[in-house]
Each structure stands twice: as structure tokens, then as C-alpha cells.
Amino acid sequence: MTATVPPKAPTFLGLPTAPRGVGHLRGDQSFPDAARGALRDGQLRANLGHATSTIRGKRAKVVDELPDWAQLREAGRALKAATMARLDDHLEELERQVTARGGVVHWARDANEANEIVTRLVQATGTSEVVKVKSMATQEIGLNEALEAAGLDVFETDLAELIVQLGEDKPSHILVPAIHKNRAEIREIFARTIPGVDPDLTDDPRQLAMAARTHLRERFLRARVAVSGANFAVAETGTLTVVESEGNGRMCLTLPETLITVMGIEKVVPTWRDLEVFLQLLPRSSTGERMNPYTSTWAGVTPGDGPQEFHLVLLDNGRTAVLADEVGREALHCIRCSACLNVCPVYERAGGHSYGSVYPGPIGAVLSPMLTGVEDNASLPFASSLCGACYDVCPVAIDIPSILVHLRAEHVEAVARDRERPTAEAVAFRGLAKVMSHPRLWHLAQRASRLGRLIARGKPTLPNALPPPVSGWTRSRDLPTPPRETFVESWVREHGS
Amino acid sequence: MSAREEVLSRVRQALGADRTPPEEVVRDYRLTDGRPAGDPALLELLVDRVEDYQATVLRCAPADVGATVRAALDQGLGSGWTAGDVVVAPGLAEDWRPAGCDVDDDRPAVQLADRAASVTAVAVAVAETGTLVLDGSPACGRRALSLLPDCLVCVVTADQVVGSVPEGLGRLDPLRPLTMVSGPSATSDIELQRVEGVHGPRTLLVVLAG
Predict the structure, then answer these.
(1) Tell me, what's the ipTM?
(2) Domain boundary among A418, A449, A475
């Protein structure tokens, strides 16, 4: 962690966004710069293409199986919208219920405060080892780094998170953080980093999973503190829910004496009954299964069963700033299924790392800029072709394309406000608007555009390496060579005016 | 201002002064399967869905549960198992238990890892998703019991089998620690290829009575 105080992050409606200098919501590079490298990585593209096409097929099959998917999806959307409209009441009720059942509730304004709370709670137990269940919220706030800075050893126990941790890598997918690695690469990481691993280990996924089981078994049995996230928290009963597959979650939620759960405030649902919707939407939409292997729920502390000390940390970290955006607040409905990543043509080619945030893909392209303030992730709202596939598969019907357009407008307005002179793009579009509203000018411009044919030299598109400011447009877009004649001209030629 | 007060006040500021009532949620999805619990077609569906997860189902008459549990253990552990390999939930019906087996008590949970198999009842089973739910009652046992031994045998009776997820959740007490089990532990983390058996039990056997 840096000693200098980072500049204050921008705010929306005066509400603070996620602070700079902590956590993983901002990349070092803009999306186009990061994606350029990824696009050259043939192995990465092959891995991603294989994985996302597999999961798309599985998802489609189990979604089609339910005759009432559309109704469940609409109920999921409405439930989330209703929850957000009364978020303060539901959070207070959740706090009351968790407290009444022996849990302790903490509130964290941002990543720094959440990290401090968790570090203090772990230190109070006197242990130096922490086992972790995969959690997006703790990735977002950089909890592992904070705990390690305090001299604690952190062990990720989800197989993909373990691969990422052992490979000193970064997660690139919400559900399958190591999706960018294939079996041979994973075998190499295990062979290199797991002490005492079988030297004859092959790249068979079953063997690799067994190696992880052996590696973590003792750690689970001796763990005294676990940190988890939460998929849902039921306000009326104080019931927390973790949805998982491997059983590492159950190990962490069951065996240690102390459990610390870090949860974004938007994860609350009002009633137990609401889970009948989300526990149908989530597994089918994420792993493409009718139900995930294990779902654990618990309310506070149960004598004689599981951790006898339970802490719940409720995290803001920019979420209230998202809530204040009437168009963008829908992004808080996300249940982290990752279906939008798996269908996104941009994600499939650019990969998760290009987004620079723990939330990649279409949902990340809207959520990350809103959590940080759009100027800290200004390229992300443009990391999309607006094809709408993300909206179609979203199990809670988040209209991601509309939020992308909304954030693009916000960015353009912010840039216009901060500049003395308008951008070349703004000037060009203003000119275009004028030209397009005057037929004579429009015909002249069309005729003039034929000069582009000289630059193209018979190729179907203009070269990318045009001089600025045109290069700003052509760097990431193909500009087609203008046709010999316009549609109107060919119509007149063939049919007469 | 405390963090609590500040976060709550931010939420209120974000939502604005106009607190129009939230829209009503329409629950026009299927609330029931239409078939009563224990319907023979539901039992068939449960078997199909559980086996799809690479778990094994053994069906028997209600009077034959004890013998079928032993047959399940033969499959899971091989025929050479002894009573000491098996630990059962403290409230499991007497005639379902293998003779002389270990009964879970208040020992430290990690000691359950020494046993090769555990046997429990369930609170409810959802046919459509092939899900068994254990609720921490004496018959189901504490959560560690169905987690640490590598082979898990669950006994389901016909009256516990409902069609859909809403019906299943409606029968459960959200204040109890619940574990929903759909097949053996699994992972899809390597190239999204499903592999059964990671940290939880690698073998799941279901005895369906009735």
C-alpha cells in the first residue's frame, strides 16, 4: 500500500465513489491499449473461444428446459428493483436479524475501511492463516493484499482462484477466474508451485482437481478463520447464502471457529421466498446446471454446528453512487452469473484482463466506471459493440446496452465541460450534423468522399494508419472505402430521376 | 457520523426524497409442479436428475432401507468396509443404521474426516433439479457430517420429494443451517469441463425409499 494519500475520486451527486489506490477496479491501461496485446495472443483467444462456446451451449440447454424462464426473469428483475427502492430498510432489517441470531454486523464506507475491519477481526483471533471462499467483493477491495500487508497468510480455496493465486496472475472472469488458462498451462503452474506434487501429474482436469484437493485438505482441517462473500442475504430472517460447486465453500463456512463474510450492500433480498426465484436463475445462467452442487445457508450462529463467531461486513465502496444514477442503478441488480461475459463478442476476443477491473465483460463495462466514477474507467463504456446479446441472456434483465450509451454520454459531457476547445470528434460530428441536414451539402460531401478511394488504393477499407485526428477513429474501426457511386446516383442511373 | 449512519444516509440521498412505493413483484412463474409430493412420476424425475450429476440412486421399499444403505456402502466403499468406517447422523432411524456403526456426537468436527462414509436423512428433495436438502436436524446431522467423509449416503423417503424449487424452499426453515446438495462436489474451473469430486464427498449415493 502507498503511503501517499491518493487524490480524491470523483463523486456522483456528491456521493463518494470507490477510492483510488486500493482494490482492483481500475486498470493500468485503457481498454483499447490492453486489448491490443490480448488480441495478438492466439493461445488466449483459443482458450476463451473454447470455454465460452462450451458454457453457452450448456446454458442454453438448461434455460430452454424451463417453461417459465421468462416469468422467472421478470420476477428477478422486479424483485431487485423493489429491493433497491427500499435498500435502507432492508439493510437495517438484515442487521437486526443477523444480530438477533448471534452475528456481529459491521459497516464499511469503502474498500479501505472494509480491509481494516477484516484485518482487525482476523488479528483478534490470534491466528495468522486465513482460508477464503471465492468472492468478488473481496477481490474488488483487494482484501488479500491488505491481509498480506498485515503479515497474514491468505489461501484462496476455489480451484480457479487457487490457479490464479499460485500463478501470480489476475482473475479474468467472474465465475471462472482462470478461464484464460488451458489445462496444460494449469498443469505447469501446479507442477511448479505446489510443494510435493506428484511429478507425473498430467493435464487431465480430474488429476488437476485431485492435486488441489490434496494441497488444501490439511489447510481446511486446521483453519481457524475463514473469509467469504455472499450471493444473497435474506433481510427478514438474517439468512446468508453462498452458492458453490467444489465444497471448498462448505469447508470454509463450516469448519473454522470464526467466519467473516464481506458483502456488497446490494446483495440483500427482502424475503426467504425471493430465493425461489434466484436459486433457479443463477445456476442455470452461470454454470449451465439445473442446480449447482452445493448451496449453503446460515442465520447467525448455530450452537454445535459451524463457526461460533460470525461477522458480516456490509460494504458500500461506490455502490451508493451507482444507486444515485437512475439509469445506471440497474447494474446493482447483477447476481454475478457471468452469462453476459460468455456471450459477448468483445469479451471473447479481448479477454477479461483487458477491462482492468475484477468485473470484466459487459456488466463490468458498466459497473466498474460507475463504482469508480466514469472518468477513472472512461474507456470501458466504449468496450462494446452494443449488439445487445448481454441484455438477452441477463437473468435479471439488466439493460446493459442502454447503460453503456448513458455512460458514453456522461463521459462525452464531462470531457466537453473540462476542455476549453471541443474535441476533434465533437467538431466532426457537429459538422456532420450540419451537412446531413442540407441536401446540397450532403451530395457535395458524398462526392468529395470519393477522394478516399485514392487513399484506399483498391482495398476494401482505408488504411488504419491515417494521420491524426482521423487516426483516433480508424485505430479501432475499419473505415470502408467509399463506393464509386452513391445509392441515389445508381438509382438515378438505372431508373431515372 | 458512524460508518453505519453514513452508509444508510448515502442510500437515502441516492434514492432521493420521493419514496414512491416499489413496484409490485408478480410471481406468475410455476409455484408448484402440479403433482403431489411423492408422486411416482416425481420419484422417476428425481432419479433421472440425480443420476445426471453422476450420483447413484438405489430404490427400495420403506421396510428395506437398512439393507439398501448397506448395499450403497458396498458400492461406495467396496464390500470390505467395516462398521467403524461409517458414521451416521445422531437422529438417523435405528433400523436404517449399519449395525455397530459410529454415531456422530459432540467430538471436534475435523475428526469426522477420519471416517470413510457418512449416512444421513434429508429434509426435502427437489425432483426437477435433483437437489437434496439437509437442515441440520438430528436426522440430517451437523453440516460437517455430510462434508468430510469422502462417501455420502442420503436416505430420502417418497413423501419428501417435491417437484419444484419453490415447493422445496417452502418446506424449509431459513433459520436452520441448510445445505443443498445436487450431486457430488464438482468443478468446471478447468476449460469449463465438469469434473466430479473436489473438496466435498467424491461419491454421493441416494437411497430412495418408496
Answers:
(1) 0.97
(2) A418
